[in-house]
Design brief:
The protein is of the alpha+beta class. Helix content is about 30%, strand content about 30%. Helix 3 runs antiparallel to helix 4 (about 90-110).
Length: about 140
């Protein structure tokens, strides 16, 4: 499996203000896990209250890179248990990696996210009308 880390400075539609300050952007790290031509994605944003920074999250994920690269993902739960000791001090990194592992597993097994498990048809296409609105299937 291959791990790619993508850094983003996401602009917010409105200024976000709390007692500790205001921000117009959200620094975010997106984790991409690739295997067999399919990708799964997870994300973690900075959070000053918990001391989570994009650089710190990326450093934590680099600690598990050897594990990721030697793993053929079959079960995200087993993968979580294997990575947990290496990420015990960074739950933001562990969460982003877990999201990516589950997303990748789902894409391989069931097709696009808009389809319920086991319901993808022909080349993993979404059945028309399955979901509406902003989560609509790309084939609708």
């Amino acid at each position: 499996m291959r791990m790619l880390l993508h850094r983003f400075e996401l602009p917010l539609r409105h200024v976000f203000t709390i007692s500790r300050g205001s921000s117009r952007t959200s620094p975010t790290l997106v984790v991409e896990l690739q295997q067999d031509g399919k990708s799964g994605f997870g994300e973690a944003g900075e959070c000053g209250f918990y001391g989570a920074t994009v650089d710190g999250i990326a450093a934590a994920l680099e600690r598990v890179r050897p594990l990721v690269e030697e793993t053929r993902l079959e079960d995200p739960v087993d993968f979580w248990h294997a990575a947990a000791p290496l990420l015990a001090s960074d739950s933001f990194a562990q969460c982003a990696l877990d999201e990516a592992a589950h997303g990748k597993r789902r894409r391989i097994r069931d097709g696009p996210f808009c389809c319920p498990p086991g319901r993808a048809t022909g080349r993993n296409a979404c059945p028309p009308g399955r979901v509406t609105g902003r989560n609509a299937c790309p084939t609708d």
